[in-house]
């Protein structure tokens, strides 16, 4: 496989340890044959032609604000075929006022009942998909359990059962919430995993394997060197 090019952009709320997560993803991608560039400014999105030369963009930026000058090139690049992928609040709790960004990513965080330290199970629903082929059928996580508003067009690859912790959702009964999904935005492949509250959760072997393969898939790199 020829080198794939990835841009990792980290920042925003420090509670999600974005710099450390960026380092984990950088190492994982480089092991998979990618060349990587890491930036800590959203101005990394300003040059649309540079973005279009990439294979993959990895946003790791919780909350914050993005200007139209920064957002429009990102959207254009993904629509043109550049992959985008990420995890937890670094991708789907970013730029809460930027609804077109949410349209692209396929979901938005709205709650995590019980906060951090909730023990829950992730179940793989599409074991034959490239991203999930090396994952166990289910595995446990102790972290935040993300309650998401999700685009009905996504392809769900893994779920978790709610309710686990108490909250205003409990009376609605049991239901399965997407944890991992893929979709398209224009020609661009989109990958998301809601796991990854802090670096040690991203580094959990089951989580890192899903994220690495998800980023490979988004970049059309299903057969890494």
Spans of at least 5 consecutive residues whose pLDDT stays below 50 are none
Nearest-angstrom radius of gyration?
Answer: 16 Å
The CATH H-level homologous superfamily: Class I glutamine amidotransferase (GATase) domain
What would the principal axes of the Cα set say about the shape?
globular
Helix content: 25-40%
Biggest sheet statistics: 9 strands, mixed
Strand content: 25-35%
* N- and C-termini, Cα separation: 6 Å
Order of helices and strands: EHEHEHEHHEEEEEEEHH
Q: How would you characterize the overall build of this protein?
A:
This protein has one domain: Rossmann fold, CATH 3.40.50.880. Helices cover 28% and strands 33% of the residues. The protein has 7 helices and 11 strands. The chain has helices at residues 18-31, 48-52, 68-80, 88-92, 99-105, 199-202, 205-218, and strands at residues 4-12, 34-39, 56-62, 83-87, 107-111, 118-124, 138-143, 147-150, 155-162, 175-185, 188-193. Strands 2-1-3-4-11-10-9-6-7 form a 9-stranded mixed beta sheet. It has a two-stranded antiparallel ribbon with strand order 5-8. The longest helix has 14 residues, at 18-31. The protein starts with a strand and ends in a 7-residue tail after the last helix.
